[in-house]
UniProtKB/TrEMBL annotation:
Keywords: Allosteric enzyme, ATP-binding, Cytoplasm, Glycolysis, Kinase, Magnesium, Metal-binding, Nucleotide-binding, Transferase. Allosterically activated by ADP and other diphosphonucleosides, and allosterically inhibited by phosphoenolpyruvate. Homotetramer. It is found in: Cytoplasm. This is ATP-dependent 6-phosphofructokinase. The keyword 4Fe-4S does not apply. Its EC number is 2.7.1.11. Mg(2+) binds at D103. SUPFAM superfamilies: Phosphofructokinase. Residues 3-278 form the Phosphofructokinase domain. InterPro entries: ATP_PFK, ATP_PFK_prok-type, PFKA_ATP_prok, Phosphofructokinase_CS, Phosphofructokinase_dom, PKF_sf. It is an enzyme of class 2 (transferase). Substrate binds at T126, I127, D128, R163, M170, G171, R172, E223, R247, H253, I254, Q255, R256.
Amino acid sequence: IQKIGVLTSGGDSPGMNSAIRAVVRACAYYNIKCVGIRQGYEGLIHNQMSELGARSVKHIINKGGTFLQTARSEEFRTPEGRQKAFDHFKKNELDALIVIGGDGSFTGANVFHKEFNVPFIGIPGTIDNDIFGTDFTIGYDTALNTCIEAIDKIRDSATSHNRVFFVEVMGRDAGFIALSSGIASGATNILIPEEKDSLEELFESLQKSEQAGKNSSIIVVAEGEELGNVYDLAKATEKRFPEYDVRVTVLGHIQRGGNPTCMDRVLASRLGVAAVEGLLENKTNVMAGSRANKIVYTPIEEAIKKHNEIDKELIKVAKILAI
Ligand code: F6P
């Protein structure tokens, strides 16, 4: 392997820059050329890429976002789009790809590999923490810290007014962000798609909280919660308890930005090096992850298809501490 292309794809996450830097510098260390591909697979399709040396990634380890930019490429889903991408892959004399992203990005890389035999390694970059084969994804820890900072502020206001707050956090299909940020911010209730919740249970629990002497409540809701979105839940609660003063906050994309935490920078640095070393050892179609603090390579199809189970112990802890 002489030349590796690196790209970030799908939703951005804090720490992607640290991961790009690690890939570029590991390539420099092992005397391999590294090419930065802009806007995910779009850059392959439209030939937007340039060589990156060790110095071209200076001062980015601490920056949120991704300086290569990212996209959810529709064109790459088509055979014509992938053909164009392969033509540019060849033209630029690339030997392999490193794809930093989530399961959608890995699925794209896997199809590309099956069609054109392009070697690749994935690095899990998403705030959702929903990728199998790694204990943590790059960006998750930063997003959690952003959430608890915001929810701490909401608590100040909630307690000052005796209010019930529904706070929506990201997690399209997974409740990892909601569960951990809910525990860390002392939420009275946490609603996640992995648990079957009912409105009656929620109402009972709010009543219990009131009887236990709580004057305000914070209910952290994952975006993918099946019981309803935060606005519907707030409306139903107001209807059931007209005496409650209910408010809604959607944290939204602030969760995707900001300087990565130390945890995310170290994880991104390790996985960037592991991805380059994996390619040098002729590994392909795998994702570099960290499990029990050890680097592991998981077959990409497992990383895409399997899911990390939500930790039942955390659910128990949240319930016990909400007494
Ligand atoms: O997958 C990461 C994520 O942040 C999800 O939690 C969220 O549902 C989604 O991306 C939103 O993505 P976008 O606004 O980029 O479409």
